[in-house]
Amino acid sequence: MDTRLYNSLRKSIIFKEVSEFNFNEIVNEIPFRILDYKKNEILFFEGDDCNSIGIVIDGEVEVNKGLTIGKKVNITKIKAGDMFAEAVVFSQYHKFPATIEASSDSKVLFISRENIVKMCSKYPDFIEKFMGILSTKISILNNKVSLLSMKSIRHKILFYISKEGKQDKNGHLSIKIAKQDLANKIGVERPSLSRELIKMQDENMLNMDGKKITVICDINEYLI
After folding, report:
1. Can you give the pLDDT at residue 4?
2. Rounded to an integer, what distance in angstroms lies between the CA atom of residue 198 and that of residue 208?
3. I want to staple 174 with a disulfide (CB 3.0 to 4.6 A). Which of 53, 96, 142, 214 is the partner?
4. Per the structure, how many domains does the chain have?
């Protein structure tokens, strides 16, 4: 394994807390498969078999769920150092529930289900980190399901900002995101999102300044 790949893998979310000794054993003993993808290339379609986890070494991939013809919802984006399919690979059906697509030129390293089991059996610090990542991902997916189940665009906007926003010095939650990206995140059309944001601003629920959206109302009143 070349030095650049070694360092990238060492910094990845799954290996960065594994001891140096165990990590060196893993990279020497466990076979990896590395593939390159061009921007917009599909890694896996929804329904494809899942037999490995993927770790993004370079670039970025995204998980998209098709709702209707020509419409998709972005579930999440996976940046360099992050991984995907860690839950699906051990599910009963091990089929991809969404499409994985490269959002930029990317390099992805794959580890088979069998080798993940081997690492979990042999390295306690690896399994501890792996289970922690699984728990976090399940929590994120639960939030996404809650978001997509909401019928009101207004509720979707407020729910998303309540989870992803950061508190400013005035105690207000704000987020900086392009309107199209926000529309993809909450599963609505961009024109519908823009109309609702303008209404909410007119009703003194939020302020918009370029890509920055700041909620100035009490979010809890609307999400209870």
Report:
1. 79
2. 9
3. 214
4. 2
Beta-bridged to residue 220, according to DSSP, are: none
One-letter amino acid for residue 160 of the chain: Y
Question: Domain range for residue 194?
Answer: 153-223
CA 125/CA 120 separation, integer angstroms: 8
Q: How far apart are CA 44 and CA 31, in angstroms?
A: 21
Q: How far is CA 66 from the centre of its chain?
A: 16
Alpha-carbon span 35 to 218, nearest angstrom? 47
Are 95 and 167 contained in the same domain? Answer: no
Does residue 159 contact residue 213 with C-beta atoms inside 8 Å?
A: no
Q: Is 48 exposed, middle or buried, given 0-12, 13-18 or 19+ CB atoms closer than 10 A?
A: middle
Instruction: Report the predicted TM-score, pTM, of the whole model to 2 decimal places.
Output: 0.68
Question: What's the rounded Cα separation, in Å, for the pair 70 and 215?
Answer: 31
Nearest to 65 by CA among 78, 76, 75, 54: 75
Q: What is the DSSP letter of 50?
A: -
Plot region of 163 (φ>0 → left; ψ -120 to 50 → alpha; else → beta): alpha
pLDDT band at 10 (very low <50, low <70, confident <90, very high): confident
Q: Final residue of a domain: which of 126, 149, 172?
A: 149
